[in-house]
């Protein structure tokens, strides 16, 4: 019998890990995960994808955290904490939120409790708490003013401080510039606090990540950022990156689905942080052409094409690389990646 308060790391009654070969991988070896897009898929589909990803041989999961989808065509946006709880019952892969904003829409004390419970449900060392400074799309809903970037980063750094204090298991009070906590204690905690990874796309965000986080998250193959972060925080500091592909029987079908569902992926600059609604993203996406989407990533059902899409991220030196599907054919995509793409990636 385990004395841990966290869920067991084994499946069934045998006491053996479900996939022991994954836990035996050498330190420093790149891990390849699957990205669950809450904006596009229903709770049942997300849970199915998690199960299929584990069966196919993916190493870990990313899961997005939104109040709104980017566009109405995406059509979903379930509460991420409920989905993680359900996933914990059907899947034993590590899960990273990619990413949660713990600053505006939800107080960091509440997020600290939700994340701690998720860590307990998933089991020891299976939850990574990815955070970011957020987008107006999700954070404006309470009617508060959407802060400038510098203020959002300041709020995020203080929120991380509050969360770490609460994860100590002590009764804490906090009087800060942005947040107040009055004699609060989280009782349901994992044996070890989960690592906090921070989304960092620019130099100012990376500076905060170096000070406040245990790892960093991005969506671009920026090898220089990986090297700088590891130089500052140590080679064991976890770096993650994610990207999307489109799987279908033909390239044209895959591109058409991505253009219909994810035109926002081509929206330029800082618009993704300041536009307040899916309708605004749909208007901005009128600037995006189908040709722009077609050139942005890999499409179709050729495993070799999708394998090449990984190469910039592998070359950049990320510890973990996550891939999401755009469109309805996720089951075929996961199966084919498991049999054709992942083995080639692991052969190097």
UniProtKB/TrEMBL annotation:
Keywords: Oxidoreductase
MF term (GO), any: oxidoreductase activity, acting on paired donors, with incorporation or reduction of molecular oxygen
Cited SUPFAM superfamilies: Bacterial luciferase-like
Stretches of the chain forming a coiled coil according to its record: none
Annotated InterPro entries: F420-G6PD/mer, F420_G6P_DH-rel, Luciferase-like_dom, Luciferase-like_sf
UniProt-listed Enzyme Commission number(s): 1.-.-.-
Top-level taxon of origin: Bacteria
Region (Disordered): 1-23
Gene3D superfamilies the UniProt entry points to: Luciferase-like domain
Highest classification ranks of the organism: Bacteria, Bacillati, Actinomycetota, Actinomycetes, Nakamurellales
Top-tier EC class: oxidoreductase
Annotated Luciferase-like domain residues: 31-319
Protein name: TIGR03557 family F420-dependent LLM class oxidoreductase
Keyword Oxidoreductase on entry: yes
CDD domains: Tetrahydromethanopterin_reductase
């Amino acid at each position: 019998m385990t004395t841990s308060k966290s869920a067991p790391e084994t499946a069934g009654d045998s006491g053996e890990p479900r996939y022991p070969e994954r836990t035996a991988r050498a330190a420093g070896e790149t891990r390849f995960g699957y990205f669950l897009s809450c904006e596009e898929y229903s709770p049942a589909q997300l849970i199915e994808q998690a199960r299929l990803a584990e069966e196919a041989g993916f190493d870990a999961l990313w899961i997005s955290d939104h109040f709104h989808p980017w566009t109405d065509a995406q059509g979903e946006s379930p509460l991420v904490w409920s989905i993680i709880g359900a996933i914990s019952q059907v899947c034993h892969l590590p899960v990273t939120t990619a990413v949660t904003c713990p600053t505006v829409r939800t107080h960091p004390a509440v997020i600290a409790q939700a994340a701690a419970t998720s860590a307990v449900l998933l089991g020891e060392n299976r939850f990574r708490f990815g955070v970011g400074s957020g987008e107006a799309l999700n954070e404006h809903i309470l009617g508060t003013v959407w802060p400038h970037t510098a203020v959002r980063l300041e709020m995020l750094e203080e929120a991380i401080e509050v969360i770490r204090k609460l994860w100590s298991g002590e009764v804490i009070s906090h009087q800060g510039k942005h947040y107040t906590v009055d004699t609060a204690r989280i009782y349901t905690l994992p044996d070890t606090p989960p690592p906090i990874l921070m989304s960092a796309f620019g130099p100012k965000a990376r500076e905060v990540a170096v000070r406040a986080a245990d790892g960093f998250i991005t969506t671009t193959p920026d090898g220089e950022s990986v090297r700088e972060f590891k130089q500052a925080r140590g080679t064991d500091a976890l770096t993650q990156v994610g990207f999307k592909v489109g799987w279908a029987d033909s390239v044209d079908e895959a591109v058409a689905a991505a253009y219909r569902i994810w035109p926002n992926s081509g929206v330029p600059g800082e618009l993704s942080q300041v536009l307040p609604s899916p309708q605004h993203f749909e208007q901005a996406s009128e600037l995006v052409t189908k040709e722009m989407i077609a050139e942005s990533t890999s499409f179709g059902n050729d495993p070799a094409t999708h394998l090449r899409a990984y190469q910039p991220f592998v070359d950049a030196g990320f510890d973990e690389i996550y891939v999401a599907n755009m469109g309805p054919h996720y089951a075929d995509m996961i199966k084919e990646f498991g049999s054709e793409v992942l083995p080639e990636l692991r052969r190097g």
